[in-house]
Amino acid sequence: MSIIKAKNVIFEYIRRDEEGNVEGINTAVNNVSLDVKQGEFVAILGHNGSGKSTLAKHLNAILYPTEGTVWVDGKDTSDDSHLWDIRQNAGMVFQNPDNQIIGQVVEEDVGFGPENMGVPTREIWERVEESLKAVGMYKYRKHSPNRLSGGQKQRVSIAGVLAMHPKCIVLDEPTAMLDPGGRKEVIRAIRALNDVEGMTVILITHYMEEIIHADRVFVMDDGKVAMEGTPKEIFSRVEELKALRLDVPCVTLLAYELQKRGIPLPAGILTGEEFVEALQTVYKG
Amino acid sequence: MLRDITIGQYYQTESVIHRLDPRVKLGGTLLYIISLFCFKNIGGYFLAALFLAIVIRLSKVPFKFMVKGMRAILFLLLITVAFNLFLTPGEPLITLWKLHITKEGLWLAFTMAVRLSLLIVGSSVMTLTTTPNHLTDGMEKMLQPLRIFKVPVHEVAMMMSIALRFIPILLEETDKIMKAQIARGADFESGNLIKKAKALVPLLVPLFISAFRRANDLAMAMEARCYRGGEGRTKMKPLIYHKRDYVAYICLGLYMVVSIVVGRL
Q1: Tell me, what's the pLDDT at B220?
Q2: Using CB atoms, which residue from A103, A116, A147 is nearest to B226?
Q3: Is B49 a member of any domain?
Q4: Residue B47: inside a domain
Q5: Across the interface, do A101 and B226 touch by the CB < 8 Å criterion?
Q6: Using one digit for the tens of pLDDT, what is the confidence trace for B177-215?
Q7: With contacts defined as CB-CB under 8 Å, which chain A residues touch B227?
Q8: Claim to verify: residue B114 and residue B89 sit in the same structural domain
Q9: What is the phi/psi pair of residue B135, to 5°?
Q10: CA distance A185 to chain B (A)
C-alpha cells in the first residue's frame, strides 16, 4: 500500500526585487512523481538547490503544489480538512536540531506533539517512554536539550515525531549540521526504526554514504528526478553522478577506477567488505 | 560556560515548598504582599516576619540567597527611608540644620523599610523554589478566566516558555558573533558610552537576523508537529492539586485571618 504518492508535482515561487516587482519565476520542483510504500526506506539525494527540501515540505502539507497532487495515506494535501491528519501521519524532522526542539526538558519536548493532538495525559507518558527508548535516549529524558550533543538532539527530534505515531517519517537533511560521529549515530537510529519497527522512512540528504541501506533512491537535479533505482543501480552510474555534482563514496570510486583499468569487478560496490570480497574472488578465480 | 546560565534564580533542592503547586505559591505571594500593606501596628509586622521565617525554614533554601535580592534594591530602600524620614510633616524630634526628623516620619520610614524588605524576601521565596517553567504553567492556569476578555493567555504562556528555552541559545550565539567581529577588528571595550553603543550595531544586526531565522524555523517545526494553539490541547504534566496544596491554602487562610485580627488592633 502506498503511504505517499506524488503525481506530476510542480512548485513555483516568484522571485521579487527590493520594490516587490516580479523578477522571475523559479521552478523548484518540476514534474516530480513518486510513490512510497509502507515499510520502505526511500532516499532522496541531490546537491544544494536541487529542490529536494522543497519536495520534502510538500509531503507534510507545509507547502502545496502549484500543479499536480500529493497524497499522504490517500488524502490530498491541498485539502485543508485533512491538514492535521496529514501532519500527524507524515512526521517531519528538520535540519537544525536547535530550531525544532520546543521543550526545556527532553521528555517535555517529545510530549509536545501528542499534547497538540489532544492525547490523554497517561497515554502521552507511555508514548514518550516508548519513543525515547526507540531512539536510545531514554536515560536522558530529564536533561535539558541545551546540554546534549547535535546527534543526541536530532535523536530527540526523531523521538518527538515518533510520539505522534506517524505512518512515515520524512527527514529533511537531518545530518547536515552534525559532525561525523553524530551523523553515524542518527543514521543508525533511522535504520533501526526502519528495520525493527518497520517504519516508512524518507531520508533527504546530500551524503552518498547515507543512502547505501535505502530500498530505493531518487536523485534530484534542478527540480527534476534525474535518476531512480536501488543504491546498487545508482552507484554503478558513476559518471552520471559526477555530472550531477555528487560525491561518490571512496570505495565505489576505487572499484570504478579499477574496473576502468581492466580489473573485472562488479558494478555498484557500496561497502568496504563488499569490495574486499569482490577483489578476493577476482584473484582466486 | 554560557550554557550554565540559569534563568530566574531557582534553587535546586527537595522541600515541601518546592513541591507545592505553583498556583498556591503565586496566590500566596500575592496575598502576603497585600497583607503587608494592611497592617496598622507593629504586631502585624512581627506576625508577617514570623510567617516568612517559617516558610523559609520549610523551603530549605539558605538565607543568604534570600538576601541576595535585597542587595539590588538597597539603594531604593535607602532613598525611600530618607525621604520618609525627613519630609514627613509632624511633631519634630530632632532638627538637623533645616531638616526635621518627625515622630510620624520615623514611624513611616521604619514601616516602609520593613514592608519593602519583607516584600522582596517574600517574592524571592517564590522564585527560588519554583522553576520558571512551573511559574509559566501556574500563570497560564490562573489567568485562564481572562480569556473571556479575549486575552491570549495560552499564547503568552507559550511565548514565555519558548523565550526561556532560547535564551541560552541566543546567548551562545551572541558570544560567537562577538568573537567573529572581534576577529575582524571590532572593538566592544573602549570609548565612551555613545561609542560603545555604536559598536554594538555589528553585533545586534546579525543577532537579530539569526533570531528571526530561528523563529521562522521553529514556527515551521511547531506546525509540522500539529501545533494549533491552546484549543483542544492536552497537558503532559497537568497541574493537579494534592493534599499538601489544600493544607497550604488553609495555612494561608489562617495567616490572613490572624493578620487581620492582629494588624487592625
Answers
A1: 92
A2: A116
A3: yes
A4: yes
A5: no
A6: 999 999 998 888 888 888 888 888 889 999 999 999 999
A7: 112, 116
A8: yes
A9: -60, -45
A10: 22
